[in-house]
Specification:
heterodimer, A: mainly beta, 6-stranded mixed β-sheet, 9 strands, B: about 120 residues, mainly beta, 7-stranded mixed β-sheet, 4-stranded antiparallel β-sheet
């Protein structure tokens, strides 16, 4: 059972906009930055979104992040087949004194 | 560009010690970065194990702190992970990663390819 809760799956068709949610609590998302990682099949995770809504260099602007209260979301617009991957949210948890990840959401491009 | 490469035994016996090394190439491990280990059991999510700074300062996941040690070897430009008293629950892909100096301690901006470690007799 992950500290951060994500839907196990999401799907969309090419060109569509999809969102992935990440629910936490006041000790993690509610008081710290949220980060998102993309893990393509068989590869290491890649940093996708920093500090709730900032994109590292090289990340397309089709990817965006937001945070409100104890929840965060990752949005992908103009969906492409190469976006098919697992997506993880992450944050520091003040109560547990540990970096925590969501359980991951498998995105399927139909 | 900086690259990370994990190495170590792919099979460890139960109650034994898991030992992995992460070699840093194309850059210095003594730069102003923390370095970290993350693992991923088969078909499951990510778990943060711990981190180390070039000074030797460490932070560990409280759930693993009694069994884990992370060390840094600046002369070899590498850092290592030791996890003792392993069980089947420690079977996972182990990743080493660099902590971003731009985005803060929770951003892992460079990852190794990962190495699979199986705990079995």
């Amino acid at each position: 059972q992950s500290v951060l809760t994500q839907p196990p799956s999401a799907s969309g068709t090419p060109g569509q906009r999809v969102t992935i949610s990440c629910s936490g609590s006041s000790s993690n998302i509610g008081s710290n930055y949220v980060f998102w990682y993309q893990q393509l099949p068989g590869t290491a995770p890649k940093l996708l979104i920093c500090r709730n809504n900032q994109r590292p260099s090289g990340v397309p602007d089709r990817f965006s992040g937001s945070k409100s209260g104890t929840s965060a979301s990752l949005a992908i617009s103009g969906l492409r087949s190469e976006d098919e991957a697992d997506y993880y949210c992450a944050a520091w948890d003040d109560s547990l004194s540990v970096r925590v990840f969501g359980g991951g959401t498998k995105l399927t491009v139909l | 560009q900086v690259q990370l490469q994990e190495s170590g035994p792919g099979l460890v016996k139960p109650s034994g010690t898991l030992s992995l090394t992460c070699a840093v190439s194309g850059g210095s491990i003594s730069s102003s970065n923390w370095w970290t280990w993350v693992r991923q059991p088969p078909g499951k999510g990510l778990e943060w194990i711990g981190e180390i700074y070039p000074s030797g300062s460490t932070n560990y996941n409280p759930s693993l702190t009694s069994r884990v040690t992370i060390l840094i070897d600046k002369s070899q430009n590498q850092f290592s992970l030791k996890l003792n008293s392993v069980t089947a629950a420690d079977t996972a892909v182990y990743y080493c990663a660099r902590v971003s100096s731009t985005w803060g301690r929770d951003a892992f901006d460079l990852w190794g390819q990962g190495t699979m470690v199986t705990v079995s007799s």
